[in-house]
Amino acid sequence: MSKESAVLLVILGAVFMSFVGIFIRLIDNSDGFQILLYRSISLCAMLALLICVRRRISPYRLIRSFDANDVAIGLALSVAFTTYVFAILNTSVASALFILTASPFLAALLAYAWIGEVPHPFTWVAIAVAAFGVFLMLGEGLSNGRTFGNIMALISASAFAVMLVVARKGGKIDILGGAFLGGFLAAAYGLVLSIFVGKGLIVERDDLIFMLAMGSFSIGLGIGLVTWATPYIPAAEVSVLVLIESVLAPVWVWAFNFEQITFVEFIGGSIVFSAIVALSIVSTRRRSLRGPFGFR
Predict the structure, then answer these.
(1) How remote is the C-alpha of 127 from its chain's centroid?
(2) Do 73 and 179 contact (CB within 8 A), yes or no?
(3) Which of 71, 191, 257, 286 stands the most exposed, by the fewest C-beta atoms within 10 Å?
(4) Which residue, among 7, 3, 41, 34, has the nearest Cα to 213 in the 3D structure?
(5) Does residue 295 register a pLDDT over 70?
(6) Are 184 and 118 in contact (CB under 8 A)?
(7) Is 47:175 a contact under the CB 8 Å cutoff?
(8) Residue 106, CA distances (Å) to 71, 177, 267 in order
(9) Spatial contact of 16 and 242, defined as CB atoms under 8 Å apart
(10) Sign of torsion over alpha carbons 28, 30, 36, 42
């Protein structure tokens, strides 16, 4: 695959993922557990299809191919997927997505503490700047009654960071297997919680359509395209390209009059974006660096 084709696939995947917020806002009567269940079912179906096509294997061989690293990635992603739903439901799409963009910096800190990878000195500056932007949004959430949603977004970002470091430690380039397991576990959580805590398994037809479309079209296909193309592009460039998701997601909900972007969200998000872009530029220009977080 050429680099140009890979870039287009990453951009397309990021655009698909940017529709998650609007899908959730279009759901009228289903609760978070039901959303988690049905979107995870269609997510698993789409990822299974993509994996089997990409690897040219049968579903049976797919199941047998899972290893301990896939399970660890799946556990981390199941937490990320679950908390992401409740973040969107309990705070603005802008705040949730902007906070989630901090996951590369959290991964840098975790990798330094866990596997001893020393970040480039500029990474520490970028982390401090991004943290300031995140805390701005968390502070506004406290004043606007969105604390729970923002905390869920931060937990989701942390779980994504754990996944990234686990994948890096295990040498995983293709994380689709782990993503499938993450979706499977998230579906299991949604099933149990819907029955014993939530509204049960019965949902309205329109809600079901939106949930299934979210899991297959927005998340499943989006993750699949980005992961497929990532080996053909420098990691630092990928980290910038996928920011398209966080830029477009608040635009969709604003365009459909579901919510507005506040001034603090705009400032905090801009600070985080600037930190990531600056770090990516530094990482790209230094050939001695490797990895998406400015490690050396």
Answers:
(1) 19
(2) yes
(3) 257
(4) 41
(5) no
(6) no
(7) no
(8) 21, 23, 20
(9) no
(10) negative
DSSP 264-278: HHHHHHHHHHHHHHH
The residue whose two tokens read 């609760």 is 31
Residues 6+ apart with CB under 8 A from 7: 229, 233, 237, 241
Q: Does residue 76 surpass a pLDDT of 90?
A: yes
Give me the mean pLDDT over the 244-271 stretch: 79
Query: In whole angstroms, what is the distance from residue 218 CA to residue 220 CA?
Result: 6
Per-residue pLDDT of 138-173, as tens digits, reads 666 666 667 888 899 999 989 988 888 888 787 766
Kindly report whether the global pTM for this prediction surpasses the value 0.85: no
Lowest pLDDT segment from 71-75, 82-86, 148-152, 222-226: 222-226
CA distance 238 to 10: 7
What residue has token string 């596997």? 115
Q: Which of 279, 242, 271 is nearest to 134 (CA)?
A: 271
Give the whole-angstrom CA distance, residue 199 versus residue 197. Answer: 7
Residues 6+ apart with CB under 8 A from 90: 146, 148, 149, 152
Residue 291's SS3 state is coil
How do residues 102-144 score in pLDDT, each as one tens digit? 777 787 788 778 777 776 677 777 778 777 877 777 666 666 6
> 265 and 95 in contact (C-beta within 8 Å)?
yes
3-state secondary structure (DSSP) of residue 115: coil
Asked if 53 contacts 109 with a C-beta cutoff of 8 angstroms, the reply is no
Q: Angle at Cα 193 formed by Cα 188 and Cα 195, nearest 5°?
A: 100
pLDDT, position 225: 85
